Amino acid sequence: MFNILVVEDDKNLRKLIVTCLKRENYNTYEATNGIEALNVLDEQYIDLIVTDIMMPQMDGYELIRELREANYMMPILLVTAKSTLSDKKEGFLLGADDYMVKPIDIEELPLRIKIGKLTIDYNKLSVTRNGKEYHLAQKEFYLLYKLVSTPDTILTRQELIEEVWGLDSESDYRTVDVHIKRLREKLQGVNEIEIETIWGIGYKLVIKGENKC
User: Fold this and answer.
1) 53 contacts 78 by C-beta, under 8 angstroms
2) Distance, CA of 210 to CA of 213 (rounded, Å)
3) Residues 176 and 155 sit within 8 Å (Cβ to Cβ)
4) Contact 179, 140 (CB under 8 A)
């Protein structure tokens, strides 16, 4: 069972996220701040954390800092009203893996984990479909992860470089193209998704047919 910890002090939003995840058959745990989240982690193995930033007692930034310093390496998804570039940069520098801005599209959340028969496993950096596992290099995985999290959205090569390789990366557009090529090769036969080239701009991921929400 895939265990997800939802850390959010807004009771209604926390319950909404939990309901959405349970509907997708994920096992969920809840906390209202960073301190409660750490207590949960003392007792339970967690695969993924979904956390707000602005919370009492211990906020999301401090929670991420504590976890990474203690070598907890599970993926962390920030869900917050703080939407400026500096806010995002701070979260990523501390060790967050992705960022959703409130008000969130609740139907987008499960796409970050599973599409139809396609499952994205954050711990193994792999994609599984009907029991077949597709192993990806770290950057390939996070590139796919970014594309999957924003389906039907054109992402420029520069945006992908900043999201996957970092704001200070010296990687060029060719690096993105090479990784996209490898992703397509490794995911041959995975027909739930398709990575489309938008010539002169970048790429977008399309969820095919019956797998759309």
Assistant:
1) yes
2) 8
3) no
4) yes
The backbone torsions φ and ψ at residue 173, rounded to the nearest 5 degrees and listed phi first, read -60, -30
Per-residue pLDDT tens for 127-161?
888 778 888 899 999 899 888 877 788 999 999 99
Q: Is the pLDDT of residue 49 over 60?
A: yes
Q: Which residues lie closer than 8 Å to 39 by C-beta, 6 or more apart?
A: 31
- Whether the per-residue pLDDT at 213 is higher than 50: the answer is no
Q: According to the model, what pLDDT value does residue 210 have?
A: 45
CA dist., res. 30 & res. 28, Å (int): 7
Distance CA 99, CA 173 (A): 23
Instruction: For residues 146 and 38, give the distance between their C-alpha atoms in angstroms, rounded to a whole number.
Output: 27
- Provide mean pLDDT across the span 26-54: 94
Buried-exposed string 185-210: b where 16+ CB fall within 10 A, e elsewhere:
ebbeebebbebeeeeeebbbbebeee
